[in-house]
Amino acid sequence: MQPRFLNLGDRALTLEFGDTIDQQLVSAVSDFDARLTQKKAAGKLVGIIETVPTFRSLTVIFDPLVISRSDLQDRLLRLLDKVESSDQQLARHWRLPVCYGGDYGPDLESTAATLGLTQEKVIDLHVSQTYLVYMIGFLPGFPYMGDVDPALHLPRHKEPRVRVPVGSVAITGQQTAIYPWESPGGWQLLGRCPLALFDAQRSEPALLEPGDQVDFQSISEAYYQELAEAMQAGSLDFSQFLRQEVNA
Q1: What's the structural domain count of the chain?
Q2: Residues with Cβ within 8 Å of residue 178, at least 6 apart in sequence
Q3: Residues 164 and 189 sit within 8 Å (Cβ to Cβ)
Q4: Distance (Å, rounded) from C-alpha 145 to C-alpha 174?
């Protein structure tokens, strides 16, 4: 897959791999990002400061005093030719708890009514999928995940909420996400997850990363409160929600 190179100021170069949202495309971005990270860590690719992966592109931020744009593009092209399926990384597979409906998911009832489904069917469809984390964006730790069952595809609200509670699990179109912070937002809110998706005090602040796989588990309000209290007390063991590592 040959990307298109785009200038992004004098310190960044964007590799555009395509113009759609699909798992093959995000895998190509993730695989190449992992390869660059390995080369950078090994000291074999000097001048790169940071990489920023998205659904369909990878932005490479570099120091123009160390490596020129043309030299960087040549290096990237050579690395692209060497990317093989054997370079795929192990991805984590999470099973995250969600309390659906009521105050936790204020749009569950209207979502079901709009789609002509029962609330139980909406929940069943949402938990039936294994989702791929396409990218982190919008807010620190905010995971864009897909793909939602086509029977649940709905647009955003015409008027976004001013306040979406932290942990809200939401859908729009083919995507689902968890709000890691309280913020404005226009997605359809189905439930809430008690886990902190972002904590600056952790060695890895964002719980999820691109390439991770996520299942959702419907839980009771009582169990939600139990997990939330453990989260608040700092005694929650996140490893219990990590199912396994799989080939990305």
Answers
A1: 2
A2: 96, 142, 143, 167, 168, 169, 170, 193, 197
A3: yes
A4: 9
* CATH code assigned at 13: 3.30.1360.40
Task: For the beta carbon of residue 27, count every other beta carbon within 10 angstroms.
Answer: 19
Q: Is 78 in the same domain as 16?
A: yes
Contact 15, 58 (CB under 8 A): yes
Per-residue model confidence as pLDDT tens digits over 82-111: 655 445 556 799 999 999 999 999 999 999
Rounded to whole angstroms, the Cα distance separating 117 from 106 reads 16
Same domain, 83 and 178: no
Domain span at 182: 90-247
| Same domain as 131, residue 30 | no
Q: Position of tokens 């690395």?
A: 79
Query: pLDDT tens, 155-198?
Result: 999 999 999 999 999 999 999 999 999 999 999 999 999 999 99
Task: Give the separation between CA 164 and CA 180, rounded to whole angstroms.
Answer: 10
| 55 pLDDT tier (thresholds 50, 70, 90) | confident
224 near 192, Cβ under 8 Å?
yes
Whether pTM > 0.85 for this model: the answer is: no
User: What ranges make up the beta strands (E) of 41-182?
Assistant: 48-53, 57-62, 90-100, 131-136, 143-146, 161-164, 168-172, 175-178
Residues 106 and 78 in one domain: no
Local structure of 84: helix, strand or coil: coil
Cα gap 58→5, rounded to integer Å: 10
